[in-house]
Design a protein that fits this description.
alpha+beta, about 170 residues, four-stranded antiparallel beta sheet
Length: about 170
Amino acid sequence: VVLDGEILGKPKDKADAERMLKALQGRAHDVYTGAAFLTYGRNGEKEVCSYAVGTKVYVNPMTEKEIRAYIATGEPSDKAGAYGIQGRFAAYLEKIEGDYYNVVGLPVSRVYETLKEAAAPGGRLPTLHPQARRSAGKESMPGRSVSAGGNGKAVSRRAGEGRLRRQWRQYTAG
């Protein structure tokens, strides 16, 4: 959560949550979530594909009473910016521009599209390295398998391309 160039992490206490919510109310701010994928080439070389997804969030004006009542729910205590879009704070949102799930904490659609591209026959995992740009204008690396997981769990680690495709088909079918 970024407001006027300041990163608003999780509040230290109720007073910090109140400070953040007072600053956010009646204004727009940005929420950024990063994702990273570690890829292994056929020869064991590692590449990293990483990106951040941004979403603009517009918060309606809130009274001090509304701010205090929201803080009293306990929701703000473990959330960046002292709010959860998926909880009671949704009542105070005017609109968002961008991916809702990005604000929740994981840009699911972007992650899915990245993994789908990598798992497709002859698929490629996008990368930030300019030397890997393909003629189609997409940034990609050929013949990669994927390891990813924000919680430390791997989707696939040094899996063969066929195994990765099978795992992804099983995951998306269920």
